[in-house]
Amino acid sequence: LNVLLFGETGVGISSIINLIMGRNVAQTSPDAETCTLQHTSHEVTLGHRRFKLWEVSSIESMGFFRALFTKWRLKKAYKKLYRDDGVYLLLYCMRGSRAQRALIRDYKFFTDIVGSTAVAGGVPVAAVVTCLENYDKDMDGWWAKNKDNLESLGMRFTAHACITSLPNDPNASPAMRARRHRSEQAIRSLIDNSYQVGVETPHSSLTL
Description:
5 helices
């Protein structure tokens, strides 16, 4: 079951993958090729199912023509993945401190390629809101405060997880360690529960 993680530059998708995996397997590489599905996937077992996690980089800093070319390349790579196994879920990763209007470009870029919950038969898109380690209330309170604004901008999600993806630090305060533990449980449950809701593996509405 393929799960694609995408989002803005610097959001820390590798850290989110490590959180899901429960150990450090994904390394941040500023020289990695942008916007491909060429990277090695990371496999994780949740419940009785195995999921493959794929990281896709942002187009945020690209110019128009490079972004257009990148979209073509990504669509080509996505078609191959679709034919081989299908795509089960998109996780759109965003920082809780980020201005929300700036999030739209990447969201539309990827959902236009693979289809989304806004399209019949589209791939479900769930939101992962990170960098909430210092949020002064319960992390899930961020979603209650901001979800209506996200929807007004045309960003629709089937589920969400509000988390911190800070590395596991044995010297961190008990409160911070508890917050990180809850984050790991929340995002793993999001992936597994999305399967339970969908019953069968969703496929893209992309015309091949």
